[in-house]
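ugh finaly. both done.
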Amino acid sequence: MVTPADGTRVLDPDGPERRLRAEIERLREEATHQKGLAHRRAEFWTKAHIVLGFPAALLAGAAGLATADARIPAALLALASAGFAAGAGFLRSDVRCRANKRARHAWAALEGRATVKLARERLSAEDLTELLDHRQAALSAYDAEDPQPGSSPALPG
């Protein structure tokens, strides 16, 4: 709204579009930030999966190769292997890594769509509605299951 010198209020004709543009810019910044977070989380869970899974496999193999005279060390190796395997199963680092990769892709798609919309001269409420739908899809990508082969992607058209 614009207030002239006489105190009356006049609607700013560019006000709604300016607010739409500001909201779309905010969504793009959020998508950029969340994409980076999802990338770092995916890297972390990849490392956690390796750190827990590799020793479990290695120790299980070593326990299986132990001789009859080394029953106690073999039992300790098997116990350590089981502990690593249980930790990997409990944390589900492989599932968390895939979820963060899905989310990273969804946030990147939102960021790209927002950038394209901001390049337009005129924006509409439908543009913002579409981006908010993609934001919701990006948020739900953390919880979604892996898509089955031949199914549609997580983000709608």
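ok and the 2nd:
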Amino acid sequence: MNRIFLIAAVILSALSYASCSDDAPSQLIWEFSNYDNKEITAVYAPDYVNQVQVVAKPDYSGDITLKCTNYTSLSFKANNADGSFKSASTGCTVTKVNDNTLKISFTPIEEAEAEGIYDTFIVEGISGKNMNSTNISVGRIINEKQN
């Protein structure tokens, strides 16, 4: 009799664990476009804390577009009246292009330390009743000629 209860408990535990993992919302999936891949490094790494990393040289001026392919609506905490997120330390501004697309614009900054200058912002994705978030790290690294 105890053996039946043990087997039932193991089966229920396995089913409970499996159903929890099925209910977990999927991570935001990103595509990058409209950028100079010689000047900007853009990486989507879903297994890391900062799932998206975008890095440019301190003297770079330009944009990169980030599109979320699996959530229909994005939001982030703006720190400007126009609804954008501006980071003075990294010289970048994040704006919403449409419901599922962001643009990061870079302006030149004076200099970056050897370790680089980084800022992070969180983007939330919503699609129906599903919701999840992504940490996006934006950085500036020192130019080789400044070494």
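summary for the 2nd one i guess: The beta strands are 30-33, 40-44, 52-56, 62-68, 73-76, 85-87, 92-98, 101-106, 117-127, 130-140.
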